[in-house]
Design brief:
With 415 residues, the protein is mainly beta. Helices cover 3% and strands 42% of the residues.
Length: 415
C-alpha cells in the first residue's frame, strides 16, 4: 500500500513527460507546505508516523506548487495551484477519498474523481470536501450524521468524492466542516448547512413540540439558513458544536452551543439561530472546539470561548464570554489570517506565524518522536498562553495556515 503511494508521489515530484501534468515554476515563487504536531496515522504526510515539534517541509510534495492545506481530525488535504488534491493520514471513515487505502497512509496520495479542477478544500473531523472551478461541491468520508449532504439514503461511509446533487444549479463559493456538520455559501452569499444539529450549530432554529424529542435534529441535504435570507454571507467557519459567519458589511454572526463554565447540552446553552456579535468590522472567522477567533479589517484579533490550555491567547486560562482583543506581541503586527484547532490556534502576522494554546502532552516531551503534541511548532509540547512566533529556521513568507485537532500546516515561500 505504502509503496504504491510512494511511487505515485515520487513520479509527481520528478514530473512525468508522459502525462505532462507537472507545472514547472521558478524556485523563487514556488509554494511549499510545512507540517508539525502529532504524526499518528501519517497525518503530517512526511512518510512515517513521527511527531514533529517544529515546522518540517513535506518532501513528497516539493515538486508541486501548493496553494492550500486543510488539517482535519487525523487527516490532511493539500491543494495545488493547478487544482489537484492530495490527502494523507487516517482513512477509517474514507476521509481520504482514495480507493485501496484501508486505514491510513503516511504520505500524500492524489485524490481523483473531480469533474473540473479544484479551487477550495476543507477537512473536518472525519469528513472532507472540495469545490471545483465550476462551483460544484464534492464530499466524502463519515456520513453517520448526514454531514456529507448526500441525502437520507446515502451510506454512512462514502469513500470517494461524490457530488452533492441537491446543489446543482448553485455555484458554491466556500465550504467549512465541523465535527459532524457542514456549512457552505454560494457565490450570491446564501448560507446553507447540514449534518448534526442537536446543539443549534446548523442555525435553523428550534420548532417546539410536545413530541420534539422524537424529531431528528439532523439535516441530510443542504438547507438554507432562513434567518440570514437577504444577508450576503462572505466567510464561514464550523467548530465542534457551533458555527459562525461574516456578511459583506463585516458583521459577525454565531450559532450553536454557548460558551459556559461547565460545557453541557442544556437548552439554555444553545443559540439555534444566527446571533450578531458586537465586534469591529471583520474579515475572517475560525471556530475551534469551544472557542472562536475573528480577524478585523483593521488587522486586529479577537477571541472568546473556553480558554483551556490558553487557547484564546489572552495570557490567562479564564473563560471569556465576550470577544476580547489579543494584545501582547500581536499589537506590533497586523493579523491577516487565523485558524483554530481543537484547543490551539495559529495566526499569520506580516508573513510570520504565531501560535498559542494546547501544546500537547503537558511537558511530557517524548524522545522517541511519539509525543501527542508539538502542534504549536515551538520545539516542545508545553502550553503557551500568549501568541509566540514560530521559527522556521530560515527566512520565509507564510501565505496560509491551517490548524487541525493536534497538528498544524502552513503554505509558504522562501524569502
Amino acid at each position: 500500500m505504502y509503496s504504491r503511494c510512494g511511487q505515485l508521489v515520487s513520479r509527481l515530484v520528478r514530473g512525468s513527460a508522459a502525462t505532462g501534468r507537472r507545472r514547472w515554476v521558478s524556485t523563487e515563487s514556488k509554494k511549499y507546505v510545512a507540517m508539525w504536531g502529532n504524526g499518528d496515522f501519517g497525518r503530517l504526510g512526511l512518510g512515517d508516523f513521527s511527531s514533529q515539534w517544529k515546522p518540517t517541509v513535506c518532501e513528497r510534495l516539493k515538486g508541486e506548487n501548493l496553494s492550500a492545506v486543510s488539517c482535519g481530525g487525523a487527516h490532511t488535504l493539500f491543494l495545488t495551484e493547478d487544482g489537484r488534491v492530495f490527502a494523507t493520514g487516517m482513512n477509517d471513515f474514507g476521509q481520504l477519498g482514495i480507493p485501496g487505502i484501508m486505514d491510513h497512509t503516511p504520505e500524500p496520495c492524489e485524490v481523483a474523481g473531480f469533474g473540473e479542477k479544484v479551487v477550495k478544500i476543507s477537512a473536518g473531523y472525519r469528513h472532507s470536501a472540495a469545490i471545483t472551478d465550476d462551483g460544484a461541491l464534492y464530499m466524502w468520508g463519515d456520513n453517520s450524521s448526514g454531514q456529507l449532504g448526500l441525502g437520507k439514503k446515502a451510506k454512512n461511509i462514502v469513500a470517494i468524492p461524490s457530488i452533492v446533487d441537491s446543489l446543482n444549479g448553485f455555484h458554491m463559493e466556500m465550504v467549512a466542516l465541523g465535527s459532524e456538520h457542514s456549512v457552505a455559501i454560494t457565490e450570491n452569499g446564501d448560507m446553507l448547512s447540514w449534518g448534526a444539529g442537536g446543539s443549534g450549530q446548523l442555525g435553523h432554529g428550534h420548532h417546539p413540540s410536545i413530541l420534539s424529542f422524537l424529531k431528528s435534529s439532523r439535516e441530510y441535504t443542504p438547507r438554507l439558513v432562513r434567518t440570514l435570507e437577504g444577508v450576503k454571507v462572505r466567510k464561514i467557519a464550523a467548530g465542534l458544536l457551533h458555527s459562525a459567519c461574516i456578511d459583506e458589511n463585516g458583521s459577525v454572526f454565531l450559532f450553536g452551543q454557548r460558551t459556559t463554565d461547565k460545557l453541557g447540552f442544556a437548552e439554555a446553552n444553545i443559540v439555534s439561530s444566527p446571533s450578531a456579535i458586537k465586534l469591529p468590522s471583520s474579515q475572517q472567522v475560525s471556530c475551534g472546539a469551544y472557542h472562536t477567533c475573528v480577524v478585523t479589517r483593521g488587522g486586529e484579533l479577537y477571541t472568546w470561548g473556553t480558554n483551556e490550555n490558553g487557547c484564546l491567547g489572552l495570557g490567562y486560562k479564564n473563560l471569556a464570554r465576550v470577544p476580547e482583543r489579543v494584545e501582547g506581541k500581536l499589537l506590533q503586527h497586523a493579523v491577516s489570517e487565523v485558524s483554530c484547532g481543537w484547543k490551539h490556534a495559529a495566526a499569520i502576522c506580516d508573513g510570520n506565524i504565531f501560535t498559542w494554546g494546547w501544546g500537547g502532552s503537558y511537558g511530557t516531551f517524548s524522545e522517541d518522536a511519539h509525543s501527542s503534541g508539538g502542534q504549536l511548532g515551538h520545539g516542545t509540547d508545553f502550553d503557551y498562553f500568549e501568541p509566540t512566533m514560530v521559527n522556521f529556521g530560515q527566512s520565509v513568507n507564510v501565505l496560509h495556515v491551517s490548524s487541525g485537532f493536534n497538528h498544524t500546516g502552513a503554505i509558504f515561500i522562501y524569502s
